[in-house]
Design goal:
This protein has 10 helices and 34 strands. The chain is of the alpha+beta class and about 675 residues long.
Length: about 675
């Protein structure tokens, strides 16, 4: 193949006269994204992978960053695009659920397989007898609200300023707990004659500096351009794993529609819209077919990039072939509703057709946008509903005020659903108890895809791997406990969001094993990948917004954390230990933060972005381990400049299907409140 996309490609469609249609313009809709953590080859269970160090991470925060930082961010983006668009052959996913697991370097996160199963598993959860027996309601009473925008109309309720209030919904006296929203989305379509033909790109066009300016904007432009996926500079899979970049200059609220259609070869096309900080704004990772279609919009004015590439088939490599890219900026029709909520309310918002559902805070901050149904991750006891495979968003309210739910990306009539509950512990007579099981445990790891009933080794077995002895066990366990208390009790009580934070943390050294007792969430701190059969550092049983199920389990395995840096790189605490380190303090800090991360899941937190330079207890695995462990600027663990890592506001992990700012401090605070 030629390395010049312009050489073909005579197969492109006929040139058409440039036309503009006064009937379609660009206004606001909704932004969604999906993404993931990088991957390499998976190690054998219980063994370290071949020598490799996890790459350093520097997020791209401005265009003025140093070239090396931008280059690293670009490499990170390329890795995650490749990993998210990889399909593995097999009847079962190739990894534990990436949303619940904290992966070490070397484990393949199988996002595609889990995404394919999400709708089926979510429907099964809602239909199960266990869900019904738990007291969760299949349906709840509520109001029905018909939007005021008539059929065929748009522009009436597109913004927060023109949102339609839905009265009488909430948890206050006289409020109904739910609302059914009836409406119609009427987005403008782009006539075929409106697409202006462009010549193909010339390689190398694999980054923002080489991106073709499509000049698609609210000036009613629509373009089509032929391309070829598979002729990047290089040889073999390096050439075939080709990413073609196209530039767009968009205004706040502007909608983008794009399609990438295969013309030749075995190409399975993929499109992603990214901003200048390499955040994924929209994608087609949920589409595995011959044409990928993208329909999204942007919250801010600026430069954006369409990245055109293809699926990678596990064992076969990248898919390649000619394609035709079409892009336009037609007028959208988002519908926006307003509801008055109270601090500690847990809101579920869903849509019954293809599209996006977005919860937006009183200050206009996008808080949780989704086009997927991940409710299978909720525990059976959660009253939060599923969405039958369509868009579903959950949100824990930080403060009293007016919140907004916006739906978009659909076409035609829809039924939306809002349900509001108080957090699960409200009025509880006992605290949320956390039991840290450090003396070994017998457990069925089949709930995480493991070997079944297994024996997990105690924490004491791993102390020598950190250069510690048996006499250090009590201090290490006490340090882990102190770290967890700070993260899930003291910090939450001190932030002022709730006056009823009520948590009790105990360990195996404090008394009898209380695992399985009502109101006790158990974190087993011990064991290995080999013993458990679960290739992860840590994994939780569920993600439970509102903490309705207060008796769950999680694992924190210790073989990677205590392993050789030559094998596990920056995922091992040993990577940061030197003669200057307080080893007991750093091991307790690192293990304590990972333990808090897993507790964070079972009390309702999703993963946050691990590549933006911000430390958060909910940062995803794969990258940024030093930040999660609290390593300070000197890059040595257990020294005076180590950092306190907490729950805080942060962006969602960009590779797991959500968009917005996740407020892990609010989710955690009300989850731990009575």
């Amino acid at each position: 193949m030629s390395t010049n996309e312009a050489d073909s490609r005579s197969r492109r469609g006929p040139t058409m006269a440039s036309r503009r249609a006064a009937g379609w313009a660009a206004t606001g809709a909704l932004v969604l994204a999906g993404s993931l953590a990088p991957q390499t080859l998976a190690p054998q269970a219980g063994a370290a992978p071949a020598a490799t160090a996890a790459p350093g991470v520097s997020a791209a925060t401005t265009a003025a960053q140093a070239p090396s930082a931008r280059a690293r961010a670009m490499r990170d983006l390329r890795r995650v695009l490749r990993a998210r668009a990889t399909a593995y052959a097999g009847a079962a996913p190739a990894s534990p659920n990436p949303s619940l697991a904290l992966f070490p370097p070397g484990v393949k996160p199988d996002y595609q397989a889990w995404a394919q199963q999400a709708s089926r598993l979510s429907a099964a959860r809602v239909a199960s007898k266990a869900h019904r027996r738990s007291g969760a309601l299949a349906t709840v009473p509520g109001v029905t609200y018909q939007e005021n925008e008539g059929p065929g109309e748009r522009g009436f309720n597109d913004t927060l300023a023109t949102a339609e209030p839905v009265p009488g919904v909430g948890t206050g006296a006289g409020d109904e707990p739910a609302a059914t929203l009836l409406g119609t989305m009427n987005p403008a379509s782009v006539p075929g004659w409106a697409y202006r033909s462009l010549k193909p790109n010339k390689e190398n066009d694999d980054g923002p500096g080489r991106a073709r300016n499509l000049r698609v904007s609210n000036r009613y432009e629509a373009v089509k351009v032929p391309g070829y996926r598979g002729d990047a500079p290089g040889r073999g899979n390096r050439a075939k794993d080709d990413y073609d970049w196209y530039r767009l200059n968009l205004s706040k609220g502007e909608r983008v529609t794009a399609s990438m259609a295969r013309r030749t070869g075995r190409l399975k096309p993929v499109l992603a819209l990214v901003d200048t900080d390499f955040n994924i704004i929209g994608d087609t990772f949920n589409q595995f077919r011959n044409t990928a279609t993208l329909d999204t919009s942007v919250f801010d004015s600026g430069t954006y990039y369409l990245v055109a590439f293809g699926w990678w088939i596990g064992g076969r490599g990248p898919t390649t072939g000619d394609y035709l890219l079409k892009a336009a900026a037609p007028e959208g029709d988002p519908d926006t509703y307003a509801v008055d909520l109270s601090a500690g309310d847990v809101l579920s918002a869903s849509l019954d057709v293809k599209g996006w559902v977005d919860v937006i805070g009183p200050d206009g901050t996008e808080s949780h946008a989704s086009n997927q149904d991940a409710s299978f991750i909720y525990p059976m006891a959660s009253p939060l509903p599923g969405a039958r495979g369509r868009g579903l968003s959950d949100y824990v309210v930080r403060e009293d005020g007016r919140y907004y739910v916006q739906v978009s990306g659909g076409d035609g009539s829809y039924v939306g659903r809002l349900e509001v509950y108080r957090h699960g512990g409200e009025g509880a007579a006992t605290p949320q108890r956390i039991f840290l099981d450090t003396d070994g445990a017998r457990i069925n790891t089949g709930i995480w895809g493991g070997r079944g009933v297994v024996e997990l080794s105690p924490l004491a077995k791993y102390l020598p791997r950190w250069g510690l002895g048996a006499s250090d066990e009590a201090a290490v366990v006490a340090g882990i406990k102190a770290n967890v208390i700070e993260n899930v009790q003291a910090d939450l009580a001190a932030n002022g969001l709730s006056g009823t934070v009520d948590v009790e943390v105990t360990t195996s050294l404090d008394g009898p094993d209380i695992s399985g007792e009502p109101g006790v969430t158990t974190v087993i701190v011990g064991g290995s990948i080999g013993e458990s059969g679960v290739p992860t550092i840590g994994i939780a049983q569920s993600i439970d917004p509102g903490n309705f199920e207060r008796t769950e389990k999680a694992l924190v395995l210790l073989d990677v954390l205590s392993g050789s840096p030559d094998g596990w790189g920056k995922a091992s605490l040993n990577y940061y230990l030197t003669d200057e380190s307080d080893r007991v303090a750093f091991v307790a800090q690192g293990v304590g933060n990972v333990t808090s991360h897993e507790i964070g899941h079972v009390i309702g937190n999703w993963h946050t972005d691990n590549s933006n330079g911000r430390s958060n207890l909910m940062d995803a695995g794969g990258l940024g381990f030093g930040r999660l462990f609290g390593v300070g600027p000197d890059k040595i663990g257990g020294t005076a400049d180590d950092r306190d890592v907490d729950f805080q506001q942060d962006t969602y992990d960009l590779y797991e299907g959500f968009r917005g700012r996740e407020d892990t401090i609010t989710r955690s605070t009300f989850a731990m409140s009575s």
